């Protein structure tokens, strides 16, 4: 389902030499939620390509440990920002770093995220609000800061980690992730002619700590539905380097999402009603 919506060649007058691409080294890339899961894999692969990093997370000890490990293994510099992106204060800290002229950031990976183990009617309103802030408000505000900065510098990339849940009816989590898909499609069409690309990465089930941290029971999902984090990140970075607006990693998930696009609402609604039962911890 990867698509190329509104793509045009970048005008020659735009200087995009500071946009990281395969084979380039020495760029500075900011990754949110970089201490575990896909965020940690993004950090590993980008550091392995020779890029300097700014990584964010809520746990300062985990951040420092991750930074030291990456610096020792790959010989790049890794700065850390302790920030809870479900709070205005945390978002402000990261947005300020994106705007800083010191060691300019040339790519933003909006990766930080969390899910809820309960169905919508069983969850607390404050838990739903916090998830919405983390999945929609934070990436929106950070993308706003990044796009303003990248336009002034005439080049930059944003990679928004969405989900296949954003492409089908899948509760409030899927609704939040659908924002990332819709925004990325529009922003890529709007700003790519000016040297700024925006890509939504929509993986399916990935073998990370995400589900365990959220208390989600995964035992009912078949083995074939799972993907490895390194494959997901590799496909996402390739899509971002190519300036694609949406990337669904793996052929099997692309086929599933294509089928879902043409499925009657009644079929999707039935899946939506039954799927949360397999996500509830202890259900």
Description:
The structure is a single chain. The protein is 46% helix and 13% strand. It has 283 residues and is an alpha/beta fold. The chain has a single domain, classed as Rossmann fold (3-Layer(aba) Sandwich), CATH 3.40.50. The strands form two sheets. The chain has a seven-stranded parallel beta sheet with strand order 3-2-1-4-5-6-9, with helices on both faces. Strands 7-8 form a two-stranded parallel ribbon. 41% of the residues are buried. The model is unreliable at 1-20 and 276-283 (pLDDT under 50).
Brief summary of the model shown:
The chain is α/β, with parallel strands linked by helices and 283 residues long. It is built from 9 helices and 9 strands. The protein has a 7-stranded parallel beta sheet with strand order 3-2-1-4-5-6-9, with helices on both faces.
Comma- or semicolon-separated keywords:
single chain, 283 residues, alpha/beta, Rossmann fold, 7-stranded parallel sheet, two-stranded parallel ribbon, 13% strand, globular, disordered N terminus, disordered C terminus
